[in-house]
From TrEMBL:
SS bond list: C94-C98
Annotated GO CC locations: mitochondrial inner membrane
Pfam families on file: SCO1-SenC (PF02630)
Compartments (UniProt record): Mitochondrion inner membrane
Domain Thioredoxin: 56-221
Gene name of the record: SCO1
Annotated GO biological process: cell redox homeostasis; intracellular copper ion homeostasis; mitochondrial respiratory chain complex IV assembly
Name of the featured protein: Cu-binding protein
Gene3D superfamilies: Glutaredoxin (3.40.30.10)
The keyword Amino-acid biosynthesis belongs to this UniProt entry's keyword annotation: no
Listed transmembrane segments: none
A molecular-function term among this protein's GO annotations: copper ion binding
Amino acid sequence: MSRLHILPSAISSRRQAVPSHRPTLFIAVGAGMVFYFQYEKKRLERKRIVEMSKGYGKPKVGGPFTLKDVDGNEFTEKELLGKYSLIYFGFSHCPDICPDELDKMGDALDILQEKAPNSVRPIFISCDPNRDTPDVLKAYLAEFHPSITGLVGTWQQTKDVCKQYRVYFSTPPELTPGEEDYLVDHSIYFYVMDPEGDFVECIGRQDTPESAAGIVLQHIKDWRREKKPVDTTPLPYLQKKQAVATVPQ
């Protein structure tokens, strides 16, 4: 009986001829696990900070307030519910900081509208009630982005809302002749509030429009990951645009 003899060199050649994808697969799986754990670590850290920000019994940032929008409608903290809110405190006579920050807000809002349509409500609260009348504020904000809702109040209402958001407030309660030209010291942050009205994070001057939008998008992603709803009803300025577009010519 003849026997089939296979030389060791032939076995080696045959093994080499069959490509193995196992190392590549292991690398891909390992990279995916590293990415997942890094994401989860960051997500849990964001969640921990959010929980800490809520405080015990009373929120550390945010709370009840009553103001009016530039059209004279009453606006309270309840109007913030449903969507994420991006809140900025400033004043129309601000020479440079407010315009720069509002430009940044506008660019960030365009990114957010593209990535998470109608999920974010931008708010500008005036901390200069003596000079920022509704008409003044309406004209001022129109230069930056149509989605920004401007809010004004009496001196006491403004002081109260600044206290709720831990905003430094230095505006004089009354103006005397010759004192109309003054500056207002105020905090320079975007306050990010979740759809339940809880504070989640501050966005500072060091952030770019891209990083600011990225921060908000991460919170939206975390929120939806927990199966929580976000109101995506079109913002008022888009509703107006849609209404105009549907009017027969």
